[in-house]
Design goal:
Length: 432
């Protein structure tokens, strides 16, 4: 078992970054496979916090190789900023630590401008995007007008390519959205020094590199971004992101065969959160929801927006387990639930007076369901310093056992705090 895919099993921000950082010490290669700088992955090591958006969450381990695969949309200016920040904090970031796929899509300022202009123009039906240009960048990829990373190094043709793309974008920006025009020449000049720096990390065939490492028996982690219910095909469309966030996309986005993906780890919080618009069946718009938000510091690391909070939704979690083929789970942030008299868990939905156990595929039905909540006794103890499962309060253990029994998939890791060290292992990694 040398390939492990780590995906979010809810609406994002489950704690994937923390888990990847923890798993990375047992791995050789960490590959980020989709999304862009809409992601915010927070790592805490000895109390020191690092937020990553594009760089894989293994980067704090200097002896590991991190790869950004072709399925990612790369805000090159954002990426340079992330590299710079890491360098300022003492990380070297050489090309034996970071590689960037030549065929990854380049995300440029006009993608952000369009994303933000579109959201601004919508009233009721806002998606609540991060404004990072993700939708427009993936659109360009699908309509075959995107620049890819290798275009940046071909400086002879770069300006012409930008002029071609901006011809259409500027009509949209100025005529449709009353936004300022963007100059191809200006962007070109900004790109040149950035491309020179990024060239250091150039990788022509990431699929080949990863395949060879797997052949040599190296341990590879595939890091997902966002979450299952934000998937472009299977999420609560249109309140989703623009990439496939599911485990299967790790193979296509990296360029390896799907048979390699044997262990699929679903990361979930012991409760639920969602940022942006869209249905959220277990949302708590009361003081209990506020307590979870406050205790869990549920404010986005990319946009600073408050995350909506609610009880754990097992209907949605089972849906995520099925869509991804999850065979191992990591429960994060159970420490945040300390201090409640009782803890709710959604075990079914009520729709038009009937009890259902499957997550509806139609988004308008998801917004109509009522959650069926079972309550379990809460615990008061602070569990952030617990080092072994056996030292968890009985009521916390009951909660974990209840969830495991309901979902029929093993929970192999429990996280009791943001720090790398605050992780309880039930089963070792890279074992069947
Ligand atoms: P990601 O996008 O899935 O990587 O998750 P984020 O990093 O956006 O959000 C998770 C937040 O919870 C971050 O601030 C983490 O530092 C924090 N976190 C992760 N695991 C735990 C945990 O077990 N307990 C607590 N209290 N915080 C955690
Ligand atoms: P990580 O990797 C939580 C949400 C946005 C919005 C929708 C579409 O940190 O878990 P987009 O900018 O992608 O077009 O926005 O998706 N969203 C996330 N929510 N965590 C994320 O990433 C997210 N990335 C996008 O809030 O609702
Ligand atoms: Mg996040």
């Amino acid at each position: 078992m040398s390939a492990i895919v780590i995906i979010g099993a809810q609406w994002g921000d489950e704690g994937k970054g923390k888990l990847v950082d923890v798993f990375a010490s047992h791995s050789d290669l960490i590959v980020r496979f989709q999304g862009g700088s809409n992601a915010g992955h927070t790592l805490v090591v000895n109390g020191k916090k690092t937020v990553l958006h594009l760089i894989p969450s293994g980067i704090l381990h200097p002896d590991k190789m991190c790869i950004i695969a072709s399925g990612v949309v790369i805000d090159i200016f954002g990426l340079i900023g992330e590299i710079k920040k890491l360098k300022e904090t003492g990380f070297e970031i050489s090309n034996s630590q970071l590689l960037i796929s030549d065929s990854a899509t380049v995300l440029l300022p006009y993608h952000k401008a369009l994303d933000q202009a579109r959201e601004k123009s919508l009233s009721e039906s806002k998606i609540g995007t991060t404004g990072k240009g993700i939708g427009p960048a993936y659109e360009d990829r699908a309509s075959r007008r995107a620049l890819v990373m290798s275009d940046l190094y071909d400086t002879k043709n770069l300006l012409a390519k930008l002029e071609f793309v901006l011809k259409e974008k500027n009509v949209l920006l100025t005529k449709m959205y009353d936004a300022p025009e963007i100059s191809a020449k200006e962007i070109y000049e900004q790109i040149l020094p950035v491309a020179e720096e990024l060239k250091t990390y150039r990788a022509t065939d990431v699929g080949l590199i990863v395949s060879n490492k797997l052949k040599q028996g190296r341990r590879v982690l595939f890091e997902g971004a966002q979450g299952t219910l934000l998937d472009i095909q299977h999420g609560t469309y249109p309140f989703v992101t623009s990439s496939s966030t599911l485990s299967g996309s790790a193979a296509t986005s990296v360029g390896i065969g799907p048979h390699h993906l044997q262990k699929i780890v679903g990361v979930f919080k012991a409760y639920c959160t969602r940022v942006g618009s869209g249905p959220f069946p277990t949302e708590l718009t009361n003081d209990v929801g506020e307590k979870i938000q406050k205790d869990g510091h549920e404010f986005g690391s990319t946009t600073g927006r408050a995350r909506r909070c609610g009880w754990l939704d097992l209907v949605a979690l089972k849906h995520a387990i099925r869509l991804n083929g999850v065979n191992s789970l990591a429960m994060m942030k159970i420490d945040v639930l300390s201090g409640h008299d009782q803890i709710g868990v959604c075990t079914a939905y009520k729709l038009n007076g009937e009890i259902i156990h499957d997550f509806p595929t139609a988004t308008d039905l998801v917004s109509q369901v009522e959650p069926v909540i079972e309550f379990l006794p809460g615990w008061k103890e602070d569990i952030t310093q617990v080092k072994n499962m056996k030292d968890l309060p009985l009521k916390a253990m009951n909660y974990i056992n209840f969830v495991t029994a309901q979902i029929g998939c093993p929970i192999d890791v429990i996280s009791v705090g943001p720090d790398r060290e605050q992780t309880l292992w039930i089963k070792p990694l890279f074992k069947d």
